[in-house]
């Protein structure tokens, strides 16, 4: 990829270290409630860690312009709260047992409490947004929430079915890339960017988010359970068909297609082994295809911000797509 080879992961996070630490403290304060279950669930989720890439993108985008640093920290915490709320709801819908190598919240507090805790987190995020007294921020968040809910419903409708690449792209935009794009747009709004600048930064976030999710889906098929922190090939076990599988299904024999359909129907690797599916994916170059597609979206993300003046922040933004595509966890 054509990103600045001199920039490193350490430099990326050193640039944001103080702000990300402030966001972590803000996140901790914002997820405290007078109802103990909400506080406990919020702390469990926060302690689970994560890359914090969405608030990092918001911070970097805001740093391209003069901006209120306190607002950037507040909104950075807000987007991580939204992301956390989606994970709570996803784990309930998917009946997940683990998340990042730890028990999923719903296994400890039950579905009913976790649904309500997820709702509370969403409302807390909107409360933070309202405090900014900026209708543009609220407009973007309302659109985001609608897209994400629609994405979840579309995915539920397609569970167990062999979908097209077009349908898959629509879902991963709504479920993942939309929040990446909004994180960038919020940074642009804080910096009072022009409409053209906001559009370019949003486009960067969209393509980075697509690359992120495609790589995530590849890792779900190929990485170890220790690295993933959840069972291998969880997507197929849950009835979800992702890019590499779609690519192979468009090229495979009827007998090979039946292997995938069996996994989707059984929601487990019982009559078919994971190795059989993985062998088929490699036979048709489907893993390589998905990874190449992620690289293409990462390149598009970099091109979206090429007109911005050179700076350390821009270098960090140009490095982020490489970090996303080359990661192994």
Order of helices and strands: HHHHEEHHHHHHHHHHH
> Any low-confidence stretches, pLDDT <50, length ≥5?
1-5
CATH class: Mainly Alpha
Give the CATH topology: Farnesyl Diphosphate Synthase
Give the strand content.
under 5%
Q: Mind telling me the C-alpha Rg?
A: 20 Å
What distance lies between the first and last C-alpha atoms, to the nearest angstrom? 19 Å
Order of adjacent strands in the largest pleated sheet: 1-2
Largest sheet, strands/sense/barrel: 2 strands, antiparallel
Helix content: over 70%
Decide which structural class fits the backbone: mainly alpha
Structure in words:
This protein has 329 residues and is mainly alpha-helical. The protein has one domain (9-326): Farnesyl Diphosphate Synthase. The protein has 15 helices and two strands. The chain has helices at 9-30, 36-47, 53-62, 69-94, 105-131, 135-158, 165-190, 195-222, 225-228, 234-237, 243-249, 254-266, 274-283, 286-304, 312-326, and strands spanning 98-99, 102-103. Strands 1-2 form a two-stranded antiparallel ribbon. A hairpin with a 2-residue loop joins strand 1 and strand 2 (102-103). The longest helix is centred in the middle third of the chain and has 28 residues, at 195-222. The model is unreliable at 1-5 (pLDDT under 50).
């Amino acid at each position: 990829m054509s990103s600045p080879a001199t920039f490193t992961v350490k430099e990326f996070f050193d640039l944001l270290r103080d702000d990300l630490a402030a966001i972590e403290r803000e996140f901790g304060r914002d997820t405290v409630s007078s109802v103990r279950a909400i506080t406990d669930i919020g702390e469990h989720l926060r302690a689970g860690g994560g890359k914090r890439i969405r608030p990092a993108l918001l911070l970097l985008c805001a740093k391209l312009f003069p901006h209120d640093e306190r607002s950037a920290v507040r909104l950075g915490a807000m987007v991580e709260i939204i992301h956390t709320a989606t994970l709570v709801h996803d784990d309930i819908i998917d009946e997940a047992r683990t998340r990042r190598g730890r028990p999923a919240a719903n296994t400890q507090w039950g579905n009913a409490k976790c649904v309500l805790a997820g709702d509370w987190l969403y409302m807390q995020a909107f409360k933070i947004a309202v405090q900014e007294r900026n209708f543009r921020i609220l407009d973007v968040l309302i659109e985001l929430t609608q897209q994400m809910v629609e994405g979840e419903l579309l995915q539920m409708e397609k569970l167990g079915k062999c979908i097209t690449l077009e349908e898959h792209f629509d879902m991963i935009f709504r479920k993942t890339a939309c929040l990446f794009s909004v994180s960038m747009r919020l940074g642009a709004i804080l910096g009072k960017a022009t409409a053209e600048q906001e559009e370019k930064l949003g486009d960067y976030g969209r393509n980075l988010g697509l690359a992120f999710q495609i790589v995530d889906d590849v890792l779900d098929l190929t990485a170890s359970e220790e690295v993933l922190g959840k069972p291998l090939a969880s997507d197929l076990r849950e009835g979800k068909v992702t890019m590499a599988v779609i690519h192979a299904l468009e090229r495979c024999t009827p007998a090979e297609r039946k292997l995938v359909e069996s996994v989707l129907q059984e929601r487990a690797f019982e009559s078919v082994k994971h190795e059989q599916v993985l062998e088929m994916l490699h036979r048709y170059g489907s893993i390589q295809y998905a990874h190449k597609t992620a690289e293409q979206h990462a390149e598009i993300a970099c091109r979206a911000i090429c007109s911005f003046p050179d700076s350390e922040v821009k270098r960090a933004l140009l490095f982020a797509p490489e970090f996303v595509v080359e990661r192994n966890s």
